[in-house]
Design goal:
Elements (H helix, E strand, L loop, with lengths): L3 H9 L8 H11 L5 H9 L2 H11 L13 H8 L1 H17 L9 H22 L6 H6 L3 H12 L5 H8 L5 H11 L4 H7 L13 H18 L3 H16 L3 H21 L10 H52 L9 H18 L3 E8 L2 H8 L1 H16 L7 E6 L2 E7 L3 H16 L2 E4 L2 E4 L2 E8 L8 H17 L5 E5 L5
Parallel strand pairs: 6-7
Antiparallel strand pairs: 1-3, 1-6, 2-3, 4-5
Length: 499
Amino acid sequence: MVDANLQQLIEQGVNLPSPPAIAARLLNTVQSEETSFNELSRIIATDPALTAKMLRVANSGLYALPTEITSINRALSVLGTNATKNIALSFVIAASLRNGNSSAFNVDDYWRRSVTAAVAAELLSRELGQQNDDIFVTALLHNIGMLIIYLHKKNNSDGTADVEKKRRDPGYDHQQVGSVLVAKWGLPERIAAPIACHHNPETAPDDYKATAYLLHFADRLSAVYNEKGYAEQARLLQTELERHYRLDRETVKALLDRIAERSIGILKTFEIDPGQMKPYSQMLQEANEELGRLNLSYEQLVIELKEAKEKSERLAKELSDANLRLQGLVYTDGLTGLFNHRYFQDTLRTELARSQRYHSYLSLILFDIDLFKNVNDTYGHMAGDQVLINLSQAIKKTIRPSDVLARYGGEEFAVILPETDITGVKVFAARLRRTIENLTTETEGQRIKVTISAGGTTFCPEQPEVSKDMLIKTADRGLYLSKENGRNQITILATENAP
């Protein structure tokens, strides 16, 4: 029983295309089982374009006839009356319904898929040994309902709520529309009935179940060439065709190749651009080649990445080395190699903060070379520089790894002594004085000896308010007193004694 909405669609008429005059004449011959060769030949011959197309199909790879067909009568005798009628009918119906594209529906894509399905159905039926003269036109029209529903919606978009509701939920699907339409055109039930259930062929009447299954798989075979994800489509098809028809995978692959090869020629005969269609085996080969290129590209990418990583690591090391050299320039005295005044200030601040936090002792010594101007005046500045260098090297040997020796400026030096109380700083200062007193610098045959005067102080945990500047002022006051009291001596002062 035809659905009410579908019946209304059929009765409206204007929304369903009627076949052109030559199609109507062909339909009349389809309904007659007694049509003569001459009568069918005369109908086709009235349309020269249709005649040329029929001959091209007859000579195409779809039928692979041993000799060239040059007349419609010859085509009829070789192909058979029924097949010739249906193929001719396919041409006129396709031509009458190719009325352009829209953003919502690409008619050329629709016919490209339909023609491919028709070729697939024809070849599959032969592979299975199922003689079916109607299968080409049946498969060509199996999705005609999609086109009709699109045209109906396009021509009846008046915006009313009732029409909109029917557009969203019409109560029928394209299988039913296609089946009713081809029956209305006068095509026999053996064509109309399978169209009504090609998506669910198991529901078809027993007489038409085989054809419904052919349509179902033809539609799936066409999808391999007309939808995305062809590899997945083909994989599933191989499994299902093997299960349903006992076709092995190599047979299915060969069938797919023949479908593409012969569809390209038939599509051109239908005046439809086959686009990028190519045999399945060629698609696989190109995919493998692309995979090979991707693998090669991946390997090249890995090599380039490794090279880039090595370059990055090399640049990072160079940058680190440059930063260390820059840090050396910023914090190191160029002549003696000791830390400079800036580093001394930063370190003393840090060490004092640490001593205050952990309630530990911190001592500081400032010292300079006695009468160093006389050394420069007597022996020259180069000799004076050598004295500074030798003195620096000698003192570095007397300090602990945790101690910090810096050139404070000119001939003045500083030593920061973490974890050192007032007794410890006195012992260290005495050793420092003796080391310098016993040091001799030889340059250009001259033996130069110098002494130092030093001042020192100690931060005690009981004095939390002592500042860095107070430590420096106290040690500097001790240095001044050592010089006033005769030089070559040490003066250690408590921080509270600073002025």
